[in-house]
Amino acid sequence: MGRKFFVGGNWKCNGTTEEVKKIVSVLNEGQVPSSDVVEVVVSPPFVFLGLVKSSLRPDFHVAAQNCWVKKGGAFTGEISAEMLVNLDIPWVILGHSERRLILNESNEFVGDKVAYALSQGLKVIACVGETLEQREAGSTMDVVAAQTKAIADRVSSWSNIVLAYEPVWAIGTGKVATPVQAQEVHFELRKWLFANTSPEIAAATRIIYGGISINVSHVLVHLLLSFGCFYNVQYAL
Mind telling me which Gene3D superfamilies this protein's record contains (predicted)? Predict the structure, then answer.
């Protein structure tokens, strides 16, 4: 059986209660392939997880945008994997470039977060990607291989990981990697998994492209389901 199609939408730090309700309404009305063909995951800010979870159609799933690296405790402002499990949130995004670059999350720290989230029963959208400077220096694969290795060193199963290649220079800039550029990195990532994990993991792991920013409108569902991508969603309601 082939890999199931995967489409995700990262809403980032955007939205109000009314805007979120409108987006969910649009999604709920969309005509989409069955869930055995495509997996659709949306990722609202944490404060809206409960609202989206309770009102979103059951064949679409919800992801948190981050979670803490270990069990909860005296970590002000953090959200633990256990909390997400308690809320029945199945997915979490980890390693997004904004957290790597702005909050200085290292490859190792992201790897630890992925491993802990998996250990608590969450599924992970693990993000990797290079900056413009790294691409122009010809080090794209060195960068994404190091990011992927930090995960591979800490996990034994990839069945609940989707690997999202998000070139940093294409996030929120209006620039988009060409299909050839994206496919080149996807090919090299799968080759890396083949050589450094197993042929089975390389064949089964879903690798998607992220970095496209779209505005939410009444054509949102058609946009989301036209491509096998991970979208960064902006608001225009």
Answer: Aldolase class I
Residue 234 domain-assigned? no
Residue 191 corresponds to which tokens in the numbers above?
């080759």
Asked if residue 63 lies in contact with residue 125, where contact means CB atoms within 8 angstroms, the answer is: yes
Can you tell me the distance from the alpha carbon of 192 to that of 179, in angstroms, rounded to the nearest whole number?
20
For residue 163, what are the contacts with CB-CB under 8 A and spacing of at least 6? 126, 128, 148, 189, 205, 206, 207, 208
**How far is the C-alpha of 89 from the C-alpha of 101, rounded, in Å?**
26
Reference 5, options 25, 35, 47; nearest CA is 35
Could you list the residue range(s) of the whole structural domain that residue 121 is in?
5-227
Q: Known catalytic residues? A: 96, 166
Rounded Cα gap, residues 155 and 114, in angstroms: 8
235 lies in some domain: no
List the Cα angle 182/6/129 in 5-degree steps.
35
Within-domain flag for 21: yes
pLDDT by residue, tens only, the chain of 237 residues: 578 999 899 999 999 999 999 999 999 998 888 889 899 999 999 999 999 999 999 999 999 999 999 999 999 999 999 999 999 999 999 999 999 999 999 999 999 999 999 999 999 999 999 999 999 999 999 999 999 999 999 999 999 999 999 999 887 677 778 888 889 999 999 999 999 999 999 999 999 988 665 544 433 444 443 334 555 544 333
Residue 57 belongs to domain with CATH number = 3.20.20.70
